[in-house]
Structures are given as C-alpha cells and as structure tokens.
Amino acid sequence: MAGHSKWANIKHKKGKADAQRGKIFTKIGREIAIAVRESGSDPATNSKLRDVIAKARANNMPNDNIMRSIKKAAGEMDNVVYEEITYEGYAPGGVAVIAEVVTDNRNRTASEVRHIFDKNGGSLGTTGSVGYMFDFKGLMMIERDDGIDEDKLLLHALEAGAEDVQTSEDGYEIYTAPNDFTAVRDELECQGYVFLSAERQKIPQNYVDIEDEETFEKVMKLLEMLEDNDDIMDIYHNANLPEDEDEE
I need a surface site. Which of 44, 178, 188, 238 has the fewest CB within 10 A? Predict the structure, then answer.
C-alpha cells in the first residue's frame, strides 16, 4: 500500500503543478533564495542550489526564471530575507502532516497554518510531534518504460550509491541516504534516466487508511489548503490516498 500511495501522491502533485504553474515557480524561487543565501550562487559549488535547479527544471521552470531567482537571492534585485520553518500536526483520522515553509513573515505564516488545521478538524502540534514517524531519504521515481532494462537500472543505481531500488506496476523507486542523493541523481542523469520526481523527502514509515468519506474529504481539504498557501513549499503526510480519488 505504501508504494501505491507514493505514486498516487506524486501524480497528484504533478497535477497541481500543471494547474498552478505560476505559483509553483514562485515557491521554487523562494527555495532558490534560501539555497543561494546559504552557500552562494554557483551551482557547481552549491549542491543545495543544484538540487533546487533540478527540481525547477522537472517542473518546466524556464531558465530565465531560474537565473532571475538566483540574481534576486544574490541581492541584485531585492532585499527580502526568507527563513525556513517546519510545522507538524494531525489531520482528521490520525493522519500525520508535516508542512515545510519558506516565509518572510513568521507570524503571518504561523497564523495561517494554524487556521488551516483548525478549520479542517486538525490540530497543530509541537516540533517533533509527528516527525519521528517519517524517514528522511533521497527518492527518485522513474516511470515504467519498455526501454528501461530493470537489471541495468538496478546495477547503475547501486553502483552510484543508492541504498535500495523498489519496483512496482507504476515504475521504479530509488532510495538514497540524504547526503548521497545529489551524487546518485547526477550519475543516473548521466546514464540517460529521466525522473518523474527526484527530491529529498520525508517518507512515512507506515500509512493510515481513511475509513469513511467524510474524514477523507476533511483530510483532502486540509492538504489542499496547505498546498494553496504561498509560503508552504512541501507537505508530507501518511494518509493512504486512493489513486483514483487523488487524481481528480
């Protein structure tokens, strides 16, 4: 069930990205700003920036937009300072939720996130309240393709430093330690593999089945409101979402 949920979730995220391209670009621009201000504007020496650029390109963000975001972060265009914050809590049905934020106004964002949880029957917790239910891993997902030799993919991934490769009817999931993610992704890209998704993620150790339609609707509404918030970059949860519902 866990694999099914991961593929359902990534397809849902891709659908949201297609429908809200401009908002996605704005959010990625903030991630670029954080990366540049931490370690500089040269992707060759800033692995975090290199990762965000790869994410931007996976979301079809034009190179001009990427370069403009880098220049902004380097102080050539504005002086907005962003900070990263992580919020943890529960949605209805005991679903654990983590929201990772990049904001220029901590108080505004905290109020908005709390409102979203309260409005949809959830509860915002303290730092660490649900984080222990997730493992931090690099995860690359490749859709099934007749042109991919599974044995070669497994060999290439393990030789590049991956921890594990899992297969399903949807495709291939390649897991790495967080610090090995960039090197493994770069090597597999050199081998010609194309990723549906390639990011460091918080992966649930177990998934929660939602028993009734009313609870499911509340969980989906809470997640959708978090996704629509401009300050929230990434959302992780352990709800086992049915694929047909998730793609609506």
Answer: 44
| Spatial separation of the C-alpha atoms in residues 142 and 109, rounded to whole Å | 34
Phi, psi of 41 (to 5 degrees): -100, 10
pLDDT at 77 over 90: no
Rounded CA Rg of the chain: 18
Q: What is the pTM of this model?
A: 0.82
Q: Which CATH number fits domain 83-132+205-238: 3.40.640.10, 3.40.630.40, 3.30.70.980, 1.20.120.680?
A: 3.30.70.980
Evaluate whether 219 touches 225 at the Cβ level (below 8 Å): no
The DSSP code sequence of the chain is -HHHHHHHHHHHHHHHHHHTHHHHHHHHHHHHHHHHHHH-S-TTT-HHHHHHHHHHHHTT--HHHHHHHHHHHTTSS-----EEEEEEEEEGGGEEEEEEEEES-HHHHHHHHHHHHHHTT-EE--TTTTGGGEEEEEEEEEE--TT--HHHHHHHHHHHT-SEEEE-SSEEEEEE-GGGHHHHHHHHHHTT---SEEEEEEEESS-B---SHHHHHHHHHHHHHHHH-TTEEEEEE-B---HHHHT-
Tokens of 182: 């960039």
